Amino acid sequence: DAGVIQSPRHEVTEMGQEVTLRCKPISGHDYLFWYRQTMMRGLELLIYFNNNVPIDDSGMPEDRFSAKMPNASFSTLKIQPSEPRDSAVYFCASSLQGNEKLFFGSGTQLSVL
Amino acid sequence: GIQVEQSPPDLILQEGANSTLRCNFSDSVNNLQWFHQNPWGQLINLFYIPSGTKQNGRLSATTVATERYSLLYISSSQTTDSGVYFCAVCPYNTDKLIFGTGTRLQVFP
User: Fold this and answer.
1) Region A82-97: what's the mean pLDDT?
2) Nearest by CB to A42, which of B41, B43, B101?
């Protein structure tokens, strides 16, 4: 299995632009998680899905952030408009079931200038 | 919410030394996992260990759920063990994995 696949690996954009991060979970995994990692706040859970349905989005920082999972093999995290404080590494992760071993993608390094 | 504390925050070792990393959590949990983030940023799952002891090569982990802590043992450390080690817990009645602040390990030859 190719593991969790994220794209792009790096994204540099200007304040105010729309940013879309993409994730393909491991085939057969029913749970998908989006995390954000910063020096100040560490690894924070933003949102997670079960069978393509958002279960808990309480970690999404603002209305500028939105996430979708249109099918079992694809999810997006969108930031519109982006701000410099959104600069971070965004990770996608998946697990077979909730409360089971979690596998991470390689992350997207986002820089908002 | 649940608090996850890891110690020590930083650890510097010479190759061949052994070490113990600790994770304390403030409430009962469904499961606990240990991760290694290598210097390139990749997060690798080391152990899924809600209770008991597991071993994988030079690494082993023990979780004592009733006392709300877990330990990660690294024996005969190598430079490739460098990076940040995270403990993450899943509180009851949720599927959310909450991460600790990590232990940064540097192993020198």
Assistant:
1) 96
2) B101
